[in-house]
Known about the structure:
Low-confidence stretches: none
Order of helices and strands: HHHHEEEEEEEEEEEHHHHHHHHEEEHHHH
Number of domains: 3
Bound molecules: fe (ii) ion
Strand content: 15-25%
Mean pLDDT: 93
Number of helices: 16
Number of strands: 14
CATH class of the largest domain: Mainly Beta
CATH topology of the largest domain: Jelly Rolls
Shape: globular
Strand order of the largest sheet: 3-8-5-6-11-10
Helix content: 40-55%
Radius of gyration: 24 Å
Amino acid sequence: xxxxxxxxxxxxxxxxxxENFSLAGFPEIARSALDERPPAEHVDLAAFMREFLLNDEQxxxxxxxxxQPELVAYTHPRFYIQLLFWLDGTxxxxxxxxxxxxxxxxxxxxxxxxxxxxxxxxxxxxxVGDVKMKRIELLETGRTxxxxxxxxxxxxxxxxxxxxxxxxxxxxxxxxxxxQFNYLPPRIAMDPVFADELTMRRxxxxxxxxxxxxxxxxxxxxxxxxxxxxxxxxxxxxxxxAHLQNLDEWQPALEAFETKHxxxxxxVAATLEEGARxxxxxxxxxxxxxxxxxxxxxxxxxxxxxxxxxxxxxxRFPEEPPVETILRWAExxxxxxxxxxxxxxxAFPESLEIAPEDQPDIFMAALRHFMEGGKKAxxxxxxxxxxxxxxxxxxxxxxxxRVLVV
Length: 406
Ligand SMILES: [Fe+2]
């Protein structure tokens, strides 16, 4: 067992015992213990890993799928200390059924805080309300953040370095603060642990129909959505979205849901679109290794206002104006295809009929123009008619780069 974490666990136990194991007192105890002897300064990660691999005397490990992986470094019946490794990790927006504090031991992360306003339970496992981002910050190595159980602490993390390692000092479980909702902005809270077996099997059966290209798929999906209750209808709609969009049958299915559920369905379409946008960025992250580019993707995924995004870029890269940094990344991420150039998933529109060799200058000039809030157009754009410039803006607005141009 690692001596540093044994001592840390011992210190937390003594302090918490003095406070009669008060749940309300635990986050501050955990935070102060981590800040007094920060693991980022006192633990040699390579030595920790070697000790974990070679010394058989280790605390009881869990079967948790959280972290890549999770290692338990200290355990007590009331709390434990875990190390979470993250290789390409991003967390969902979530709350906790436990409390304590986490500490960035290696690497750094983008950390976003949310609130869930106007919460309205639909079932014990699903709520509607307004998911609002309140704050976004860069968490560098050595930072410690308290965790409070329940809806007062809703957050998401996007880990920037590989590996990122966080140390969590946490209670086993805070009774009455579950379920551990995940939040799908802008509208839905769902219990990720809840399993509705019939819905799961129905989704699998729909996948069979999709695989065999059964022509009855869109009609069946639409009939289900028109009949099902809100919770199950939402999951079926979510599951069928991509395939129905490919078949150009999405709109009737969405309308069937909206007709069935009226005001309760408001914001559901936006929630599903936002989920698809986040999934697309997560997927790109799998093929992009350059840390600056991963940082850029993290921002595109999590930040909803251009000013916040520029601010975070300045914090991390203060040497040049943030617009210049972003344009450099956009250029580095540019790819050439048979049809023209693309920046991430924003492809230069073929319909503009501009020669491939002229596209990069025009595309970059357009991006600069939109990012700077549409001030005087740069030279490369001046020869384009206004509708073509508007078309370029629409291309960016429909892509992962959306936040930069709206
Ligand atoms: Fe968390």
